[in-house]
Amino acid sequence: MAPPLGFVSTREDAAARVAYLFSETVLSVQPNLKSAPVVGFQHALDRMVYHKVRGIVAKRGTLPSVYPVRYNADPFLTAVEELGRKTFVSVTAASSTLPAAITHLAKLAKFPVVIHVSMSRNFADYSEITSLRQVGFTLIQSFSLREAQDLAIASHMLAIRTGKGVIHFFHQPEGEETPIPFEDVNQIEKVFDRNSLVYGETEGSTVGTNVYWNDTAGVVAEPAKEDSSVGKTNGEQANGTIDLTKVEYKTADIFHATETVFELVRIAVGRTYRAFEYHGAGNADTALLIFGSSAQVFITTIAQAGWGDIYSKVGVITVRVYRPWSAEKLLSVIPRSVKRLGVLEQVHRQTTKWGPVLLDVISSLNSDLSKSPSIPVIVGYQLGHLDSKTIRQALRGIVQNIQSEAPIQNLLVGGRTSHDVDTEYHLAQPELETAYSKMLYNVFADKLSILNALDKDDAGIPRTIASNPEYGFGAYLAREEEKKALMSKLQRAIKENAFANPETNDLVSRWLLLDSENSSKRSDVGAELISMLETDGSEVASSLLKHRAHLLETSSWIIGSDAWSYDLGNSGVHNVIASGKNVNMLIIDSQPFTTRSAQDASHRKKDIGLYAMNYSNAYVASIAVYSSYTQALQAFIEADKFAGPSIVIAYLPYNEETDSALTVLQETKKAVDSGYWPLYRWDPRPGENGLPNFQLDSQALKKELSEFLERENHLSQVARRVPVFGENIAGSYGSELRSEQRKKAKDAYSKLLEGLTGPPLTILFASDGGNAENLSKRLQRRAKGRGLGAMVMAMDDFPVEDLGAEENVVLITSTAGQGEFPQNGRNFWEAIKSSTDLDLASVNYAVFGLGDSHYWPRKQDKIYYNKPSKDLYHRLEILGAKQMVDLGLGDDQDPDGYQTAYPGWEAELWKALGVDGVGAAVDEPPPLTNEDIKIQSNYLRGTIVEGLNDESTGAISASDAQLTKFHGTYMQDDRDIREQRKTSGLEPAFSFMIRVRMPAGVSTPAQWLAIDQIADDKGNHTFKMTTRGTYQLHGVIKKKLKPAIKAINVALLDTIAACGDVNRNVMCAALPYNSALHKELTSYARGISEHLLPKTTAYHEIWITDDNDEKKLVAGNAVVDFEPLYGPTYLPRKFKIAIAMPPYNDVDVYANDVGLIAIVDDDGKLTGFNVLAGGGMGTTHNNKKTYPRTGSILGFVNKEDVIMACEKIMLVQRDNGDRKDRKHARLKYTIDDMGVDVFRQKVEELLGFKFEEPRAFSFESNIDHFGWVKDEQGLNHFTMFVENGRIEDTPEFQMKTGLRQVALAMKGGAEFRLTGNQHVILSNIADEDMPEIKRLLAEYKLDNLQFSGLRLSSSACVAFPTCGLAMAESERYLPIFVSKLETYLEELGLRHDSVVMRMTGCPNGCARPWLAEVALVGKAYGAYNLMLGGGYFGQRLNKLYRSSVNEEQALEILKPLFKRWALEREDGEHFGDFLVRIGVIKPTLEGKKFHEDVVEEDEE
Ligand SMILES: Cc1cc2nc3c(=O)[nH]c(=O)nc-3n(C[C@H](O)[C@H](O)[C@H](O)COP(=O)(O)O)c2cc1C
Ligand code: SF4
Questions:
Q1: 1134 flagged as catalytic
Q2: Which superkingdom is the protein from (predicted)?
Q3: Residue 432 CB: number of other CB atoms within 10 A?
Q4: Tens digit of pLDDT for each residue in 1074-1128?
Q5: Dihedral sign computed on CA atoms, order 791, 792, 796, 797
Q6: Cα torsion at 1028, 1031, 1035, 1040 (round to 10°)?
């Protein structure tokens, strides 16, 4: 293969060559002036044409064409036309040509066009790039000659892969650089798939896909429309071709594609590129993100710094992928040690107070606080021109400022131009600015005329101009008159042949013939005419020159504030619109979103946009520069072009000029997101369908606007045609109504009660788990039955200041944490507790508390028992309220729990209220149980579909939340921010967990990649490998739930029965050393799973059907489903099956409802299974009726009979399990209640044969064995350590990215096996593929197994923030806890000794804590029950050693025990066994005896 035959020495040449190779047509944009020399890219292009170089994408037998296009010939329009012919087009241009072309660029972004942009050689202005940030292009930056070549290749591959536009930009330094060889076409062709060249218009070209409309959200936010194509469906077909017609790419998809392309480039050229790059010390305290041409100079200077230099340990971050902006990737490169971050932007024409990149950074750091490094100080700088002489001093100044106590924002660093370079480093504070008027200046430059500018002679535009618009409008009319007079003069002069030069005559006629719609041409001709008049010499020419300004077209603007919105009809706004004149109005609204409702209703602002639209003759746009800069720019250009009145209303919310960037950003975001300030553009001229052109640029629309659009008949057609639009209308109605309803709820209640005769009763509750709430609601029903006017609400929803006006108040509260109020009563209690002026003298009250006298069993903790109710009871007394009855105390320890004490207390209450004699209590509807929900659900349908479509809330109904579990998804909310959202009046941040059904935990690399991508696109960018060896996604919001489940199904996986009262994911031993046996066992796991799958068609109906599917969802009696195994009520409780292969018990076979222990003969052939039944983990704290249990052995079955054995065990449980008490419904209780022998007999009756005697077997451990092994077939397997199964990228550890690369590199029959210990095995790797896999593992540090034995054997459940049942941290805390023990263990020489340690956030036991040698089971935040003495291979349960210990206490207990183990253990004796032998803990030999022999110190 021929090597490259030449060298390039400029970045423009390098990019131009690649552009030529990857295009059929190259448009080379040249400067305006005819006489200017051919510049930049053109030299290289000319050479390619001259040598007739063949392209890579040009059709066979044709050569790429190169067209130089002049800047003034609307070059980007030419590109649009070329693309219309469906050719592969690229453009080479200078950055200065871009901003003016923004409207064409918006169209081009939807085609696979690449624009190579070179920034000015002198001192580039990066605002030419940042102004394009929302146009829809991917923006890739290169920093060197070599990169320009590589990333030019990447840009073209990306455009072709995604069908979307890419802008590749770079700073072109003066002169030539050290030459590099031409690009290597052979290498490129190796990674570039020619088959992918299926050219077609993307769907996006017909539907408005504002991929980047939400500027500040970056990749973390989804674009406007939901994606129907995910994972492999991203248009990528099985044969590797890309059918662009089917693809609609989203921001996150594009980002993924970018990473994939970078990887392909790495394979081709051996160089790695990432979206963001960090350079410098890993422990830097300060870092600088540099967006400008001197980034490299900064990096080099810091690298060469001496010890004494203040900046020697400063890190530098460079941005290679500017759009899509990935907040996650940025966060992942910033070291955790960084506490101060400077953002340096080389943006000359900065229109907003804060630079665009600074805003990106701020919102990134805000996007996910849990993942963000804690950077308290972010300082923006304007980056001026710096060179090697000034850089050191500049760096010193930057660092001094950022490290000072009060850093100055927005400092200018360096000179304004390359000629303005002081040898002295200088700092200057920029003038205050007004974002919108600056934007107008930038867009229209000399053409701009502000009609009501207060100080016209001053070049600076005044800040918010509040002068009245009549003045401006008057000025406009006067100018029109002058212009008219000039035109008559010109006409006369032509007639009279008054000019000296006949050519002047021609030019005047040309000027007169051009109408105002052709304003740019008219200006061009006008400019020529002025120079002609200047040389004409005639008298008339010099008199005409006095009016020269009118020969040039202007863009006339009146700027004002929203003060005009109060009385629109009488305002100048009305005059302007009514006149129909070509005047543009910019109206700035600065009222912050959060203060809008404080307005006096009689003096409310009117909606100017709506007012103008009603006129139907004005162009109207609503913009917000801090939400979408590009949309604002587009609106200005469109308003200018519109030959009639244009009204642009612009949002710039601030309380004070000194508001921080974040405040303005957040205010804008809230207003836009909520629909209060929708972004839109309205052109009244009929569009292609005869309808006015309404472009909604944000997601939500406020009610008034949607009403207007609905009223417009033709627009309701639009709504129907463009579903997004319709959705928005419906959505905004819903949310407005809901908030309205909430406000009225209390009033309505009171009104309702007025009609009732009996005395009023206000019942207030505080409840976390629902007991206190249910009790309160029941009390209300009963009170009504006694004729009382009863209302019930959560304490926090009740205005405390109204309490004094109530007559009878009942307060029912449970106890949370350590004697704390439940969440929904905390604010109420705080107010009551601290109130000094609350007068409750006329209030009668009663309090009932729910608690657990044993929750904190130690003597000193007795104060926590029912503390909130006691506190409340006493506080109300102090405030003067009168007790109706004594304090009632419900105790979980009583025989019937709180129900024991309650009836007596309630009877007293009726007496006190004088209604005890009133007979007939209402017939209370029995509470809805899970069994009711199942039976009423019509085979698991419920109202899930309706719930998913309800956009007014992120939640689904409580009963649907039970049903969706059967479909593999749980509703959760982010508990970290629950409180915060509540105080902001928001509903909890609901999202969904999705669990995949994946028998045996085996998945293909393609499936791994699909899950990885779904986690990014639809979830929280991480996923978890669960303790049942499957994938679990978190943080999926309701809107994305269906697409996510659909995408999982597209990846040939599903989520059916992954949760719910059915047989769940069937686990299987991972067996890396024996592939044949693993394959056979896997087939049994799959067989069992399939056989026991629910048969309802609800799953497909709800999740897999298309929204546009003609087939309507069937509900009610129309559907006759049949569940041959389950029947309509399914099982009483969840059901779990696992297969173990001795001597490894990595699936914890004893913890399952059915445990199958594989038995092989002497030849290693599978003969059958020993069957265990009745294992289970879930318990409830302090409820001794609940306990964990290990499975009991039923006997041996041949392998042919095993599926039937599982089925029959399940059926006996179906018919005998407790359906009344869910806490007693698992198979373990059924078996204990009936006895193992009776149970076995019932199963055998159904089977028709008896179990054989169990076969001998022995287990050695229940943990995974890490590292590489070779199986009997010569294939290799690597068991990798993944702490607690969490797959994510962190700044220190790019695990998710690394595993993605590994998945991409896995070949043949290679597969992933997920283990029950939450680790992963890379399986079936052929010898020849080993080097690459090993290289990747090493590159991403995935091969690190140098962990302590304790860590390698530990596991934790998810718990906070997503699990709704968590009482304490688990996954986030166990690694920290282990670290605290590790050093000590090392000192004892126990570093490599395995100890099975598990942690869960609650006693449900997802990580099987009861089988661990040491376990911490969450009880309350920071408090755990410490369990000891489990068997090392999962055969024996542990036992409670101390309840409610905190970290310090746990360490205090464990350390001496470990020490004794180190000193006193017998050979090979495991920790759990040792503790039992020395009598520290009694062994738990049977589940039923779990609570026996517990020694609890200090217990009464
Ligand atoms: C995390 C947690 C902490 C608890 N702490 C206490 C406590 O400190 N004192 C107490 O008397 N009861 C405590 N309890 C018991 C509950 O108050 C009791 O179970 C009650 O019935 C729960 O009612 P709810 O469902 O309305 O929240 C606690 C329960 C939980 C789950
Ligand atoms: S053990 Fe409890 S806290 Fe942990 S994931 Fe399971 S239910 Fe949630």
A1: yes
A2: Eukaryota
A3: 8
A4: 999 999 999 999 999 999 999 888 898 899 876 554 443 333 344 457 888 998 8
A5: negative
A6: -130
